[in-house]
Each structure stands twice: as structure tokens, then as C-alpha cells.
Amino acid sequence: MPKSNKVIIQVCLCGAGTKKEQAPTVPYTAQELSEQIVDCAKAGASIAHIHVREDKLVNGEMQIGYKSMSLQKFTEAVETTREACKKAGVDILINLTTSGGEYEDVKRIQHLGALRPEMCSFDPNTINWANSYIFENSPRFLNLLSQEVVKYDVKPEFEVFDTGHVDSVMYYVNKHNIPQPPHIQFIMGVGGSMPGTTENLAFLVGKLPKGATWSVSGIGKTHMSMMLAGLALGCDGLRVGLEDNIYYSKGVIATNVQLVERAVELSKLAGREIATAEDAREILGITRNCLRDEVTHEATFKG
């Protein structure tokens, strides 16, 4: 059973790979991110999961909207978003990615201490993503990340792609005294990991640590079925957005706001209420910290 009748809707706006050629409204810049986050908050999202992009020379060719772990880009995105939300009178939790791939460990965590987000992603295992590249999360990095989330009071969102990952979550929680209960985000349907089926999701839910909260997302074509299965199984949250799925229906490209609106509608049809940002904090055990709103930054970051 969920901890509350309220469903936490998280919007994952761009990820590291979705391109404007695929989905024209995928946000690249801090301004685009902040505008969409405000709109998604108004539509019912209570968490915004943020990746950042930059224009970068790659193999001699300029790539527009290339994946980035630049501290400057994260600072721009977070400060612009906080200001836009304040101006619009909306509240949303900021969840920053630590999924840096080829970046060195320090670049994947430097924004946690600098920006004090309420949440961050925590991927507890290395996988062969879609059987095409290594999504590396070494024990060396995960021990460092564990220390950072404890030090800066950041709620980790443990992204679980397969069965054994649940055990890995508890290994790091217990080793580093990460506050419990953990919050688990099931990511279903990534090639090389757990396929997005109702049977598999039910199995994973049965393996949850005692008291854990959980959310679910299905990648691509499993997006809708995993939302429906999650609601049927009593999820605490649903994750949607152009990071995971670019289609609203077959052949119809979605926007982030549309995906949030659909998750809200489905949740209400299932007899659930939509969690506000303050509801989400209560469900996830996140305490408001004035430091998050008062952190100041130098404009000369070179991250």
C-alpha cells in the first residue's frame, strides 16, 4: 500500500540524449527548462528531474544540446528555475542528475554541495545500456556519492533498473547511514535490463525494503503500461517526461506538459489525489532547508 492516497508526479524534462530533432520542445537551455518546469508544476508535477546541456565540439563537429555535467550549466538551470517558480508562485522539488557517464567522479557530484537540491539521482549499478554503451556507476563513485548525499542532506532517488539493484541500494544505505526509508525509482524497459512488464514490476515491488516509497517509469513503448501497472500496484509516484518517452500516442510527439497532464488524469481515474510539492516532501521525508534558498554562487564557475 502507498504511504498516502496522493501520487507524486515527477517530470524528467530532457535527460542526456533526447534531441530537438526527435521532440522539438525538449529543453536545452536554462530558460527553456525553467519555463517548462513552471508549466509542469501548474499541471500537477511536484518534482522536476534536471539534466543540463551545452554546445560542445565533439570529434571536430559542434554538437548543439550535448549532454553536460557543467557546474555553470547546473547553476544557471537551478537559479533560473528557482527564480521563475518564485515569480510564478509555484513550488516544486528540484532533483538533479548525477548520471554523468564518461565524466570524472567529482564532476558528477560537484553541484550537490554548490546548489543543495532537495533530491538527486543515485544509480546503484553499472549496466550495458540498451546493449550499446556502458552506463558506468563504479563502487568508487557510489561510495563518494553516498557520502555527499549524507553530508548535504540530499534525498537520493535510487534508480533501479533490475532485480539485484535493490540489494545494491541497501548496501550503500547501510554502509553510509543514508537516512531511511529509501525512495526507489523503478526504470522499466531499458534494453539489457528488466523488461517493462506488469509481472516484472510486481516482482520488484515485492522486493522493496520495508517502508520504502516507490515510483515507476516505463521507457518508450512501455511508458503507458507501467503507469497503469504502477497505479494498480499502489505506487507512491509516477515519472514522466521527454527523457523517457517522446510519444503521446503512436506517431504523435508529446510535450512535457502533456505527459504530466496525462499522468494526473490517470491518477485521478484510479481514485488517487495529486501530491503538491509540500505533500511530496512529507511522503519522502524531506525537510525544508533554508540553505537551499539562500545559497549564492560566483558567476565565474568554470565547471
How are the secondary structure elements laid out?
Blueprint: E1 6-12, H1 30-43, E2 47-50, E3 52-58, E4 61-68, H2 71-88, E5 93-96, H3 105-115, E6 119-122, E7 127-129, E8 133-135, H4 139-151, E9 155-160, H5 164-176, E10 183-188, H6 198-205, E11 213-218, H7 223-232, E12 237-240, E13 247-249, E14 252-253, H8 256-269, E15 273-274, H9 277-284, H10 290-294
Parallel strand pairs: 1-2, 1-12, 1-15, 2-5, 5-6, 6-9, 9-10, 10-11, 11-12
Antiparallel strand pairs: 3-4, 7-8, 13-14
Helix pairs in contact: 1-2, 1-8, 2-3, 3-4
Outline:
With 303 residues, the chain is α/β, with parallel strands linked by helices. The protein has helices spanning 30-43, 71-88, 105-115, 139-151, 164-176, 198-205, 223-232, 256-269, 277-284, 290-294; strands at residues 6-12, 47-50, 52-58, 61-68, 93-96, 119-122, 127-129, 133-135, 155-160, 183-188, 213-218, 237-240, 247-249, 252-253, 273-274. The protein is globular, with a radius of gyration of 18 Å.
